[in-house]
Hints:
By secondary structure, the protein is an alpha+beta fold. It has a single domain (5-194), classed as Gcn5-related N-acetyltransferase (GNAT) (Aminopeptidase), CATH 3.40.630.30. The protein contains 7 helices and 7 strands. A 7-stranded mixed β-sheet has the order 1-2-3-4-5-7-6, with helices on both faces. The longest helix has 18 residues, at 177-194.
Amino acid sequence: xxxxxxxxxxxxxxxxxxxxxxxxxxxxxxxxxxxxxxxxxxxxxxxxxxxxxxxxxxxxxxxxxxxxxxxxxxxxxxxxxxxxxxxxxxxxxxxxxxxxxxxxxxxxxxxxxxxxxxxxxxxxxxxxxxxxxxxxxxxxxxxxxxxxxxxxxxxxxxxxxxxxxxxxxxxxxxxxxxxxxxxxxxxxxxxxxxxx
Length: 196
């Protein structure tokens, strides 16, 4: 059964938790690792810099029309991760990023539930045509989760992710709006039958 999750605006406390999660080698190694300066890498902004940002800088980061940032919360409001949609409006598509930072919730379907919420926002909220993700070869749980939701392999990208002193390849996986609606209906039906 999929747990209930909600998307909410990102707060400074959320970014502080994200910065702490990314210090954990298990979390950052499944994400983007650490840079040459030893700081964990993150897409779109540096959490440490964001924590020290002025109100104007904060608004620039978290109110960008082309990069939608969300905190992921449980039904009772507990912050467990972050999702991003980087939108190319002329192409009606978005690149999706998803991180569940709470390791104790890994493999309990929180990632899948959050992915459904982000896809609902992309396809139903923003009326996009396509969503895609760049998933490193070393992150097989993410590949399986995206495949389960109907994403298909669209390409193999060479040397895209730096980790542990070497470059790793990744997979471009995509999903179209009409494919998602069919897959979503099947998943939720199956989930409802399992919860009976």
